[in-house]
Amino acid sequence: MSHQRPAFTVACEECGVDADLESANGIVDFYRRHHRLTGHDATITRVDLAFELPTDGDLETVVADLESRYDDGVPIGVVAAAMDEQGVSVGDTLAEIYDVRMTGALYEPRDDHLAAV
Ligand SMILES: [Zn+2]
């Protein structure tokens, strides 16, 4: 039986801890759990996807770019991974997602997945 490497690694640099995750939204779960316990932010240190992430553009542009890859919304963890490439932390990306959703430019077709309007 072959073992596939987990696709993502997320880390808290302050604590020196990291976690290998198979699903993109595991990044979001890690952040929420770690932030609740410690108040710390998180960064994504490894991304292993079958396609290249967009490396520029604001949040709406990144979601619009990635949307063609997914049938029912882009997992927030993948959006966070793309924003991390631009030096934006997971916490900052989640805060920005909240703000942009309030403007109505993005919506959640299902939990923790984003689509552009
Ligand atoms: Zn920490």
UniProtKB/TrEMBL annotation:
Record-linked InterPro entries: HVO_B0008-like_C, HVO_B0008-like_N, WH-like_DNA-bd_sf
Protein name: Uncharacterized protein
Domain HVO-B0008-like C-terminal as annotated: residue spans: 64-114
Source superkingdom: Archaea
Domain HVO-B0008-like N-terminal: 10-44
UniProt cross-references to Pfam families, sorted A to Z: HVO_B0008_C, HVO_B0008_N
